[in-house]
User: What shape does this take?
Amino acid sequence: MKRAIIIGATSGIGRALANILADNHYLVGITGRRTELLNEMKTERPQMFFPKIIDVDRTADNIDVLEELTAELGGLDLFIICAGIGNFNPNLDFAIEKNTIQTNVSGFTFLADWAMTYFVTQNRGHLAAITSVAGLRGSCHSPSYNASKAYQINYLEGLRQYASRLKMPVYISEIRPGFVDTAMAKGESLFWVAPPVKAARQIFATLQRKKKVAYVTKRWSLIGLFLKLVPNWLWDKIV
Ligand SMILES: NC(=O)c1ccc[n+]([C@@H]2O[C@H](COP(=O)([O-])OP(=O)(O)OC[C@H]3O[C@@H](n4cnc5c(N)ncnc54)[C@H](OP(=O)(O)O)[C@@H]3O)[C@@H](O)[C@H]2O)c1
Assistant: This one.
């Protein structure tokens, strides 16, 4: 039996992924801040789910909890960072930007490094993180969200190089969703919105193949290509 931890498993993509992993015989460490949702999930699958409260923003405070959870699971094969926040910020309120940076940049980095160190020490493992197509370009509507996702994309590329130089079977997967029907998907001009279960199924297939980078759903790779190619003057008009 394999073992996974999902950071941010209480709702949306993380919760759907937790269920798919359990369906595929993984013991799953489920984490988040909302205790009632963790308890609800534990009741649904008492043999497969191992809940722990983890607030990503508390960085170093989480070491003991992560070690405890890994021991309860009996090891760790897969670590998925799904937790993230994002808000529109039309007035450039620094409190909003600061919260986003704390969770999506500082908290993310701490967890990615913890998992990487764990996997390097045991000489194998798989780190995955949910980034976003939003990380490919800047946005006037949510500058810190797009910038934080760009940071994650870049950071994971760095970790992939780190693992590759060690010549160890430690894999890094970076998953870029388009719109998925969760509390995070805000705004009125949404399109190609995927149900969380469909997104999670595609993510799991990607993880099984240890893909380095994947768009979810698959057709969002077209938007990814467009975002990479569109010139600045045009992007500034349409964003
Ligand atoms: N939905 C989309 O359209 C979309 C598109 C592209 C990328 N994404 C990315 O997908 C990921 C998952 O989002 P989602 O769409 O599934 O939204 P969601 O339903 O709002 O889920 C967010 C998850 O992150 C957790 N979380 C947030 N802040 C946290 C913190 N400080 N500490 C611990 N956990 C925290 C939440 O748990 P608690 O509240 O219980 O702590 C929850 O489990 C995010 O990284 C998001 O950027 C989403």
The longest helix spans residues 94-122. Helices lie at 12-23, 35-44, 63-73, 94-122, 143-166, 196-208, 220-229, 232-238. The mean pLDDT is 97.
